[in-house]
User: Fold this.
Amino acid sequence: MDFLLSLGSLKHSQLRHLAVRVQEFLEKDEVNCAIEKRQLKLTHCIFCKSSMTVRWGHSSGLQRFRCKQCRHTFNELSGSPFAKLQLRQKLGTYAQCMVNGLTLRQAAHKCDIALSTSFQWRHRFLQMPEQHKSKILSGIVEADETFFRESFKGKRTITHRKSRHHGRLKKGEQELMVPVLLLLDRTEHEADFVLKRDNREEIYPCIQGRIKPGSVLCTDGSQIYAPIAEEENLVHKRILRSNPARTIENGLFHIQTLNNYIARLKGWLNRFYGVGTQYLGNYLAWWRILADESLLTIRDWLNEALSS
Ligand SMILES: [Zn+2]
Assistant:
């Protein structure tokens, strides 16, 4: 093609400019592909589930449909988290920001959108934590709890305690910590749960039915897990704190893989300077998806976000 041949005569600055433009087109194209893919799946009315739907013109660049049964109209993005979105074409760029794990402010700057929009989009992209949680773990499964500082970031009012001066604790006041249970097997299936309390009543329902019977459950010395392992038909391996090697049976059983996972997660979360407790589950999901290398492209993010 003449066009491609002519690239050789461009100056460096022109090439860079071109690369930026090409990237923009690619991101827009990814959005359109994701929308098209969603349209193919839209075979039933989103209101009454009837299959008697017909195409009903276009509106704001989207295909509209009408249901002959309930007479409602909807478009190809209705029912998705991006249904009423104005700045749709920037979603591709935003998906790229999600891939790169950018902060709200960085993403807002990159997409040239308001900070409030950036916030709204991030959480729309993150409305898929449940679907990506591993349903069944097996083999050697490591379980442990970790704690995050309770935070009211993103909330307008604090209801159950007085606000603090510069976030400092008062004398004698204890920092409230939010427990999170994490399960990880050796094939990198992960499940995480934000708990109200760190006790058996909260932990058991998270594990119940989620680990294949006969698997090995590795935990720390906590007493909570032994009865759960027994009820779920799991072989329980407790790694006591007093054990200097932190492993048992020649290094086969340990909770180091999970501890490393948690350390990397906490290191990654540092960039956000504290995460609001109400959104903690969303951030765990984001990390889970980033850590899962099979799901790292813009297209994956868009398809995920549009399929919910
Ligand atoms: Zn209908």
